[in-house]
Amino acid sequence: MYLSELTALPGVSGNENAVRAYIKKRMEPLCDRIEIDSMGNMMCFKKGTGNTGKTLMLCAHMDEVGLIVSRITEEGFLKFKTVGGIDPRVLVSKRVLIGEEGLPGVIGRKAIHLLTPEERKKAPKVKELYVDFGAKNKKEAEKYVTVGDYIVFDSAYREFGDSLVKTKALDDRVGCGALMELAQEPCTWDICFAFTVQEETGLRGARLCARRVKPDLAVVLEGTTCSDIPGTNSNMVSTRLGGGAAISFVDGTTSFNRQLVSWLYRLGEENQIPVQYKQTATGGNDAGIIHVSAGGILVISISVPARYIHSPSSVISLQDYKAVKDLTKVLMQEVDYADNIENIM
Amino acid sequence: MLTILKTLCETSAAPGNEGAIAKLIAEEVRPYVDEVYTDALGNLIAHKKGTGKKLMFAAHMDEIGLVATCYGEKGQVYVAALGGVTPQTALYQRVRFSGGAEGVLVPDGKLDDIAKNLSLQKMYVDLGAKNEEDAKAKVALGETGVFGGCFALQGDCVISKALDNRSGCAALIYGLQQAKRNVNDLYYVFTVSEELGLRGAKAAAVSIAPDYAVALDVTPTGDVSSTNKRAVSLGEGVAVKIMDRSFIAHPIIKDRMVELCEKHSIPHQLEVLEMGGTDAGAIHLTCGGVPSGCISIPVRYVHTPGEMISAKDLQNAGELAKLLIEEGIE
Question: Does the CB of B20 have a partner CB in chain A at under 8 Å?
């Protein structure tokens, strides 16, 4: 299982190098050819067993949400901006790692005693926060850090409960890990395992992959929101932890082909793989940009539910992770279903 | 044209679920073109060969709708919007799901309590289901639905749901059926998921790579509201789009449309829309840039069950489409 190592790697959007290098080394022996484009997307191609001339693109994004240094204060603190969607409320007092060296630091804010009654009522803004990494002053800080350095959450991979995992970057290292583990599964169609960049900053990398590969079907493997938690109305629960592989029928960026969605759900049921629908219509992923690229591409999205997504401590179930891999494996075996467009419209 | 318009309006096509209406349109256009096919997103593409430059027409088939997202214990079906559904308009509307189930969108709780920040999350569809199991049997998760609003013709006035954009579809069908000749190499594209952000048109434009594009869509009028002042009025003719928020019409297309209207005495008006967008907005940015324009049909009360157009305006839109086909764009 690659997941513990993958999630430990730093890979804030725009700086996916470490993740790509890790995956490349392990994918090289498993596929015929690897292409890396100018943005850093990595496409690993493997010939199918069927000479169908068709291509299946399995897609996962390598990047994670994080921070970037925007200014160094006279006192030696690091002001930062967020990269990707982060709720500032999850940031206070969290441990982080700064720059290529991974220098340890803590996100700081005034302690409760020092907050005015007004400040106590309000959520902190990013501009009120800073990273403290122990520098005495600006001059010392500048020896180690420059503006533009990336900052990642410092959060260990830890298994707990009934096959649950807590760590950072599960969105979308679960997808990356699943792709790697599926690399040797048989498929009649040619396959492109596409590891994309900059999904969290607006689906930027996947657009290039879609145009280059022009697949006949693209399957996006993701970590998605999971809100089976106290305080959520039952009609706002998107997915349930332990509920199985989450299949999207519509989200903020894609309305998925109804026949394909039903077929996939059925495949799960027939093969005793736990499946659930993602029940809210919000959010989005690489499928959103892929399906409108290259003259229109059929897309599917299969996700691992992740509680506290986009925070240092997101939580998934390894059973859901397995279900996503199992379902994708069956999809690869049965992919000919997507061959006839007229039949599924 | 009103006969086909009625049939089109009465067929459901929520975004992402345009299969049924695409079949219907395919049968209408097949005898008049060289080839009809569907792309991976469900866009219906009809190709009529010509010797001139490649001209793409785009009329979106979808209408705003809903999608079932989960169930309540008492048989409630909770929904999310597909496209620009305003909660105030949606409340207490009839909903028809693609599997045939009918329901009413009702407030989840006391109306007074939720009215202030009304949203679809505070409503559910009541199917008259006995319980959750019964609701599941009637409507599948992810099933799409559309709002009610039956078709009525009253003098020159047409009232119906989904006139956005069955009017555009009807005008394009009329134009291509009536045209006796053609100059351009023509692609009539009936697009999907326009209401979700011009998605189908964006994909189709890339595969067709047209030299020019003309969308057919509705445009809101400014003739009854005192708050939205616009020059476009119902019954004053087909509207030639100057701009909306998604694009500015290219002079080649816009001027050609005005020229044809004047030459053939077709009542027309110019449209400057400060909001909204149409398929041309997506198309004109593809393939290194495509000069684009739009034939607009004035509509009142867009995105409600009581959309209203003038039959004369629609006829004029159809005539303009026909003229563009017959006389072409060089």
Answer: no
Alpha helices in A135-203 (DSSP H): 138-144, 170-182
A256/A173 Cα distance (integer angstroms): 23
Domains and CATH numbers, chain A: 3-64+168-344 (3.40.630.10), 66-153 (2.40.30.40)
The tokens of B316 are what? 């004029």
- pTM higher than 0.90 for the full model? no
pLDDT band at A335 (very low <50, low <70, confident <90, very high): very high
Segments making up each domain of chain B, as ranges: 2-63+161-327, 65-147
Beta carbons within 8 Å of A120's beta carbon, 6+ residues apart: A112
Give the H/E segment covering residue B298: strand B292-299
Q: Pick B65-147's CATH classification: 3.10.580.10, 2.60.40.2550, 2.40.30.40, 2.50.20.10.
A: 2.40.30.40
d(CA B222, CA B269): 13
A345 contacts in B (CB within 8 Å)? Answer: 19, 22, 38, 42
Q: If pLDDT is split at 50, 70 and 90, which confidence band does A309 have?
A: very high
Q: Does B67 touch chain A (CB under 8 A)?
A: yes
Please compute the mean of the pLDDT values over residues B192-206 and round it to a whole number. Answer: 95
A16, A64, A199, A200: the active-site residue: A199
Give DSSP secondary structure letters for A280-325. Answer: ------THHHHTTSTT--EEEEEEEEEBTTTSSSEEEEHHHHHHHH
Interface membership of B15 toward A (CB under 8 Å): yes
B76-79 LR contacts (CB < 8 Å, sep 24+): B76/A235, B76/B108, B76/B124, B76/B125, B76/B126, B76/B135, B77/B103, B77/B124, B77/B125, B77/B127, B77/B129, B77/B135, B77/B139, B78/A235, B78/B121, B78/B124, B78/B125, B79/B105, B79/B120, B79/B123, B79/B124, B79/B125, B79/B145
Question: How far apart, in whole angstroms, are the C-alpha atoms of residue B107 and residue B91?
Answer: 7
Contact at CB, B80 and A280, closer than 8 angstroms: yes
Query: According to CATH, what is the number of the domain B2-63+161-327?
Result: 3.40.630.10
Strands A275-278 and B35-38: unpaired
